[in-house]
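ARCHIVE CARD
Drawer: 12
Card no.: 0347
Subject: one protein chain, sequence and derived structure
Cross-reference: see card 0346
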Amino acid sequence: QALSSAEGFDFVRVGNAWYLKGLLVDVHVGHRNVVEAVLDVHGEPLSPEEILHQIDLPSDIPVAARLFSLNYALERDDRFIDVGTDEQVLWFLRRLEPDEAQRPPARLLPIPYTYDRSVLSRQVLLLEKELDDEWSGVEWTPSELEGLTAVTFILTYPHHRSGTIPLTQRIQRLFPEGSVQHTRVTLVDGRTGNQMPGWVVHRHRYVYGLGEWYQANRILVGSYLTLEKTDDPFTVIVNFRPRRERREWIRVASSDGGQLRFEMKKEACRCEYDDLMVIGEDSRERIDALWSRLTEERVSLEEIITQVFLELAKLSPQGTVHAKTLYAAINVVRRCPPGPIFAVLAANPQFSEVGDGYWLFSKPEGV
């Protein structure tokens, strides 16, 4: 800020670089129209250096000045968006970027909850770290993150519905770093080699671009997915653990209009999944309507947890529910990291921890 008017000089800024405004090259609307046409034909992001060859700026002006002027002009034109990283600018057309990269899907945005983490037992904290939700705030040590080239994670319902990957601390290590940008990457199907455009939305902690891949491979909620780094920092391989397809009994979510319901049904399964987190769905429209109602009516998290817990308990002869199962089920109708959910279990005397991650609900005497 101080530099922008230091000693009477007018400076302008692009990223972390400053330049005298009076020395900028005029990148007028005609130049910018040419850039738009070039990007439209190319269909892929281009660096400022690649774009510079396509427009007619005075050749007697240093390249550095022309590049800064180009970036400054495109940054202020709403048609263009930087989809690179903090170190590398890549320009693309905003209208060619998917809506899900510009506005995060509602199912991925958690409602902020204040809770007491001191009530969480060591076992519960370890379970929270195992789940590795991108909004949980779990901290990984440098030694745990160092040298990561591949990460396996469990696909949850919000990301399955949104066609996204959670951008956790570990998964971030596989993708280019950025801050405000929507970084354009290539996701490669590890089984077929097919390439898919992906968008790393750093601020909202997700990578968009796998909706069609989930559908084509009939990936279930609760499936194990693997991401693998490549020599190209903008290319990541995505894969699942295949198995011979067969019909198996899994939890299937539905809605009766007022509450979330679960029952055991046989569903076709062709990839490995976590038994505690696998979920199918029946009548997506009704589930969406329930999601909207619970949000609009501001139904409390504790009320949702109690209702879903009791519904899941019906599927167990012992009436117990695993914390991982509850977390997966809650996220069908309310985006929430595990911490607040586990805190409700720990703080409410009606819930009892019975070991190995399982919990039991007991009604007060006389009720």
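Annotation on reverse: The two ends are 64 Å apart (CA to CA). The chain has a mean pLDDT of 91.
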